[in-house]
Amino acid sequence: MKKKTMLELHRISCEEFKKTCKIPLVVVLDDVRSLNNVGSVFRTSDAFVVERIILCGITATPPHPDIHKTALGAEDSVEWCYYEQITDAIDDLHKDGYVVCAIEQVNGSVSLNDFEVEQDKRYAVILGNEVKGVHQQAVDMCDCCIEIPQYGTKHSLNVSISAGIVIWQFFNKLVLFTKL
């Protein structure tokens, strides 16, 4: 086997990406302190054609060299916006008809494996701070909470890893309904 060259990968330009059909998923980062995690979420969101990213609270915004280090330019292709308060972001997402889901371990959460994606709905997933997770006030405003099943000794995953798992799972379910 021979590795593909950059030309053989047939990647689209940033301008073409902006015109490409996206999956109906918004990723919300609330108080994510690591700029490398933010960059990683941009890069994953680009790979799986996420509609946009919402950055909230202390989460840094592009342009920033530490975001660029892991985003590798995805901060220019993926649409994003900033809200000072997560509650305002959730209010606007609800007004726009999104089902808002916290990625958090709570009583009554739904396992990511069991979460049913519906064809006619748009979704937003909230990922929280690396230590404290999603704020309780945000959890209280969400339509549901989704938990990533884990079987080892640790009780959590890195936020960018969690984002990758969740985005991939939603992509697999939503791409069936989206004309990509």
Protein model, in words:
This protein has 180 residues and is α/β, with parallel strands linked by helices. The chain has a single domain, classed as SPOUT methyltransferase, trefoil knot domain (Alpha/beta knot, 3-Layer(aba) Sandwich). 34% of the residues lie in helices and 21% in strands. It is built from 7 helices and 7 strands, in the order αβαβααβαβββαβα. α2 links the parallel β1 and β2. α2 packs parallel to α3 and α2 runs parallel beside α7. It is globular and about 50 Å long. It starts with 13 loop residues before the first helix and ends in a 6-residue tail after the last helix. The mean pLDDT is 96.
Helix content: 25-40%
**How many discrete structural domains?**
1
Strand content range: 15-25%
SS element count, helices: 7
Any low-confidence stretches, pLDDT <50, length ≥5? none
Q: What composes the largest sheet?
A: 7 strands, parallel
- In CATH, the architecture is 3-Layer(aba) Sandwich
Distance between the first and last residues' Cα: 28 Å
Order of helices and strands: HEHEHHEHEEEHEH
CATH topology: Alpha/beta knot
The rounded Rg comes to 16 Å
Globally, the shape reads: globular
Biggest sheet: strand arrangement: 3-2-1-6-4-7-5
User: Whole-number average pLDDT?
Assistant: 96
CATH homology superfamily name: SPOUT methyltransferase, trefoil knot domain
Number of strands: 7
CATH class: Alpha Beta
Sheet/helix structural class: alpha/beta
Topology:
Elements: H1 14-19, E1 23-30, H2 35-47, E2 50-56, H3 65-71, H4 74-77, E3 80-83, H5 86-95, E4 98-103, E5 110-111, E6 122-127, H6 136-141, E7 144-147, H7 159-174
Parallel strand pairs: 1-2, 1-6, 2-3, 4-6, 4-7, 5-7
Helix pairs in contact: 2-3, 2-7
